[in-house]
Known about the structure:
The protein is α+β, with helices and mostly antiparallel strands.
Amino acid sequence: xxxxxxxxxxxxxxxxxxxxxxxxxxxxxxxxxxxxxxxxxxxxxxxxxxxxxxxxxxxxxxxxxxxxxxxxxxxxxxxxxxxxxxxxxxxxxxxxxxxxxxxxxxxxxxxxxxxxxxxxxxxxxxxxxxxxxxxxxxxxxxxxxxxx
Length: 148
């Protein structure tokens, strides 16, 4: 390393021009592992708990139309259909949701005192968190991995 002092370049006199292009929204921090929008059942009266779970904890964006219960991820949306009784299902496959940090999601679940199970996935070295959302639907949280 040289012992020469750092010097600033002389001013050019050019002023920066404001960028007038439309600003793009930042991507949402959650993604659904799906090929299209997902539709799930929900009982009436749990909207506040659903907002707390999907918007507050998992950072989905609630649809502007408040008459519908729709949460947007970066790639798709979860649409909830209000029903009086939840349907009988022969199989239960959890909705997989990619979060940026499984550790942060787990801390939020602990703070909210929600029950969950941490489990190893089929891919070696990966784990997921499985739990029920406030509507009684199974959800599996996995950590998003950067493609290299």
